[in-house]
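Sequence in, structure out.
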Amino acid sequence: MKILWASNAPWCHSGYGNQTNLFWWRLQKLGHKVTIFANWGLSGAPLNVDEQGETAHVLPLGYSTHGNDIISMHAEHTKADIVITLYDAWVFDPSVTSRFRWVPWLPVDHEPCPPSVRDAVKAAWRPIAYSRFGERALRSAGLDPLYVPHGVDTTKFTIRPRERARKALRMDETLKRPIEDIDFLAVMVAANKGLPSRKSFPEVLWVWREFVKGHPKSALYIHTHPGPQMAGLDLYGLLEDLQMPTGAVIFADAYWNVMGYTDSYMCDVYNAADVLLNPAQGEGFGIPILEAQTCGTPVIVGDWTSMPELCFAGWKVEGQPFYTPQRSWQFIPRHESIRAALDQAYESRGDTAMRQKARAGAMAYDADLVTEQYWKPVLAQIEAEIAQPDNTLELVGA
């Protein structure tokens, strides 16, 4: 099939860019012709990208933020049999997506599926959920999704010696404390976008302030942009208001956070940590949860949306539901539950069996395995459905 893949450009250091980079060339190796429409990361002119002996044409964004003005023209130009969008489905205009065979590979991060998502996906040829939670939520909304999970490159994200990872990250320089003075390191890898904070920064930092009072040799590294420039929180201001002890919390380098860190660096981040904190208010998947465990690092996650299915080694916290502008529910993690999980993670630091359990669970999401076990049959099914005489579609410009 000819596939137009619409998402962040494969060189973008976002969750969508991450998965685009993992899978576009793997789908091409299955025998499909993939063209990428970059709704973020490219404007003004097309270019080519090469990976693992494969080449794809990358098409730019038009004038609208999400590409509703140009996506159907890209579909016409490339003669796409299907258009896979790896993005929030509710941003797409059904009057546009009904012009081609739209296959949204989409998140659901609320319980139940929000009306805006349900109504948008009604225009889809065949939706694909990337979590089992999302699959159930879409079915409950009266839709008929397929399932393909996100993946991880298990050759790049591996278990490394913890002390060596901390030295590689120069944690002593970053924290302005000797490495030997840190007996517990927690990590958050989460975008600081949106209000209220979907990644639960206020709740985590409130609990962390109390935690470090009893564990002064602990540190929290937050891999994010701490400023409000992406419509997020002023995290430096939050630390000041909490009167957080000096050196208890540090952030990623501001310059390299914009330019993008390598997979090897991120592997060291996960390996340096004793635990990953990710009790988000809602997750469509949660790539850092998977990457951390691929590196043998246990996790603290919320016991809602997609997160429980990705918790192979770690702790699930309780939360309180709250109603969002999407007319559905997410969850605010309870302070006492985060604290209980942190206490257990502290006592379990260095647990080799837990590290191996985390890695073993994550291996089910190896990108090559996901391609063979999920993408290959799903695309074959879609191709067979298109071939049926009653399933023909007059594409724009055909």
